[in-house]
Amino acid sequence: MAAAVAEVSTSKAYEELTGKLRELDALNGISGLLGWDELVMMPEGAVGSRGAQKSALAGVLYDKRTDKQLGGLLQQLKAAAGELDPVQAAVVRDASRSYTRETAVPKELAQRIAKLETDAYVAWVAARKESNFSKFAPFLQQWVDVNKQKAAAIDPAAPAYDVLLDDYEKGMTSARLDEIFAEVRKGLVPLLAELREKGSPPDDAWLAGSYSLDTQAALCREVALALGFDTNNGRLDVSVHPFTGGSHPTDVRMTTRFKEGDLTEGLTGAIHETGHALYEQGRNLGKEWEGLPVNSALSMGIHESQSLFWERMVGLSQPFAEWLLPLVSKHFPEFPKRSAADFYAAENVIKSPSLIRVEADEVTYPLHIILRYEIERGLIDGTIKVEDVPSIWNQKMKDYLGTAPEDDAKGCLQDVHWSAGLFGYFPTYSLGAMYACQIYEHAKQQLPELEQQVAAGNFTPLREWLNEHIHRKGSLHPSGDALMTAVTGNALQPQVFLAYLRSKYSKLYKLS
User: Fold this and answer.
1) Which of the following is catalytic: 273, 311, 362, 376?
2) What's this model's pTM, rounded to 2 decimal places?
3) Cα separation of 243 and 482, whole Å?
4) Is 246 in a helix, a strand, or coil?
């Protein structure tokens, strides 16, 4: 196979490799544009032709990703690692990782996975509609089985869940997650109980109202531009499900959505997507980086850290409320005349009960993630049976969040992820929140005037700091822990996150 490729000098081999990788990056960019257009602009009648286009492109991408000449170049360059600089070494490391994952899965298994994606989604939709987990259970069992087979094909020596997790959070392991999540659970469960039993919830009833969708869109556009979204290198649109995509750091496509009866959901969603977009627009376009794996986002958790950094650490802070409130009043003159402190408090009310993950606040959200992680890991390692998922789910909801769903639709069937076989995805959401918190605490030390700057609407110093320390570093570091160490001096520290939540919410809920 790869050994048949005639070896050339290391520099020549690297030049050939980067040519192939940049071509792949360009094709991935085309795929990204097709996907964005399908969700935002494509007419309904084009579904069939778009499917054919995507299928044809997927075939081209697969052939190039699994090209034996590519494998040969990677093999040669891994053997010559001592001759590579840190950026080149990161390119080879991540390209090799991707090549192994692409070529390890047999064609028959890949075809089964592709078919199961459709079949399991249809079954999940029907089961959720009927609130009947048993209708989905056989398909979840199939996903457990094929994911175990996929993991064994990629790395038979590693725990299966770790191999799946690496698809989303490279360098992370289940042992490290156990360590992180155990500390978070131990700190959050009693904090949540204390806030509910002894705290005084802020008043958020006054936020209710009817808010024009067009005016919300104008407000959110102004906020996104103020944070630094560059419309010379991006677009802002509306879609059913908000997302950030595109084809290149010079072409970032961001979408949002709005509800007439909920102003804050549209605002926080727009700020969240702006965080993703700023990460994409801030990627390194130096000649040694552009179009190469080292220029990609390090992981889903790190990408999520950038959206949650702006949404929660900045957007749900009191300094930001001081800047935002006059802007809201400008767009909505009828908005209640309340203080920035009232606005800040109302935006940060803890959900009670907290049954639905996507509606959860920053205190309850991690417990939703830990519950899902513990169940999906148990499914993969065999300590949990598929048929027991609903009962285990409900018990963990009681233990962690103090409530249980009335049916499967509001319980173990609420998320689409398992219908797509995305085992290992859920942890990245809360890892992102913890990364964001630790980065923000360090940024405050580095930028002593940060909170005053935020209150004044001057986001440039913070954005440029993130650009230098996070965005432009791409995938230079091998893991989130390595990046956190480089930026903050320590690997991810759950206690930083817990201290932030306890301090913030003890004050908001007036705990003594």
Assistant:
1) 273
2) 0.95
3) 27
4) strand
